[in-house]
Predict the 3D structure of the following.
Amino acid sequence: MKKDFLLIVAIYLLACLGVMPYVKWYVDNPDSLQYINIAHHILDGRLTLAINGYWSPLITWLLAPFILIFSDGIIAFKYLQMAIGIFVIRKWLMFLVFVDVDEKWKRVLGFMITPFIISYSLLNLTPDLLFVGILLSLIVELIRWLDKQSDGSKIGKLGAVLFLTKSFGLPLFIFLFCFVIWMKDERIPKFTLKKILLPFGAISFVWIILLSVKYGKFTISESAKFNFTYEVAPTLGKTVQLPVLGNGLLKPANDHALSAWEDPASQIQLTPLDPVGDFSNYLSVVNRNLQSIYFHDFRNQLGWVFIFFLIVYLIRKKSHEVIPLWIKISLLVICTMYFGYSLILVHERYIWICTLLFIPMVVFFIDKIFTSIPSSKISEIKKIQATKRISEIKLIILIPVLILCIKRPAKEVLMCGDRDVNILQLYHAFRSPIETMSIFYRPDEKLHDDIQKLKRIIPPNSNLASIKKADPERDGYASTLLIAYECKSKYFGQTFEVDSTFKGYFVSWKAEAGEKVFDSDGGVKVYLK
């Protein structure tokens, strides 16, 4: 599939470059700015600050040289994500080698990854795309090891890299590896286990020691502890309002931090969840997380199609037929991801891999369900006719299924999100993509223009705060944090009204009392307090 890889990468890069002028200033997640600032810590030699229990290290290590090349952290992150996208495409094609469907459908599956990677790379400046790529690599190696095509020497290294990409990678790898050992149909030599576990343990141990020394206690991650609290974990009917992001003004975490979000639990008191003592509340947390999974992967999405064809496939499967190894591993990964994240907190980007793994399995199920082995008594002409009819039926079913698959990432790129739109609006968006992107990404262009003007007004090392934004179109915390980053200032957070004790520049999207130093037609107003 080497030719396909080069062609897919060429299409992907051309599409990214075509979309980039519209999306290059789109940043709607405050996490992105924290990774960028930690990369600056690395470049400026502040290595102690670069060791952070809330923000996993690998993406910042990769980002640092890109910032040297592109100067602006946002642009650097976008191009890093594009490079990671090529890596993910490569691993996706390696995974498809195991998918036993007709070669033409395998090629279609290869090209189908493109809209997903464009969306994931350019609109989400987080480690989640890298996590998908490393996890795909691990899946490939686990399948090879179980199928006796590999000695498993890469498995432990990939497990360690998975942990360095996201802290969830540590328990995920341990569970997957233990389950795969159980699946192995032979005794595993100690030498093989050492080749796998020693690299995993050594690399992971170094990072765990660094974190533990910094925080003065044993820890593998502070983010899980932060998320596993009453203040953070969402319950049914509760609007998620993360501490730090919406609960008043807080000083940045350190002298070189952009905001308190860099070390969110350092200045606030959080109450850990008590799954045993307060089981009903914890059950509500899990229920809310399961609903998030349902909305992301099943409501009007591919999940229900997958379940339907899985059931039909299992009913029609002959007793002597063996479920392919790649399907077993894919199902294991999907169930582990859903179960693990449902216990703490779910975001759509956390479970991207599940959506991707659904697609080849659905194609495989449809292919097998409608595969017919004509009887030897049937004439050759009738065999050809029957085979042709079956191919036509599969085509009729697969085309709308594949369209359903790519609908969401395509909408995300064109409309900066999976918006609820009617058929007419969707048709117009796909018919006029440039006009659509110009409209939906206009706020980001305007904010960028405003920032260029604000650089001449707000001196470096100034203090910024903001009034909570009523418009849900863009996250107000992320927008003002971006202003602070570009103006080389510090951001103290957002409030519902002007805080009289704050001294510095207040950013608002509506008129406020005080000395106005900037007012743009994009809605940004800045007051000096």
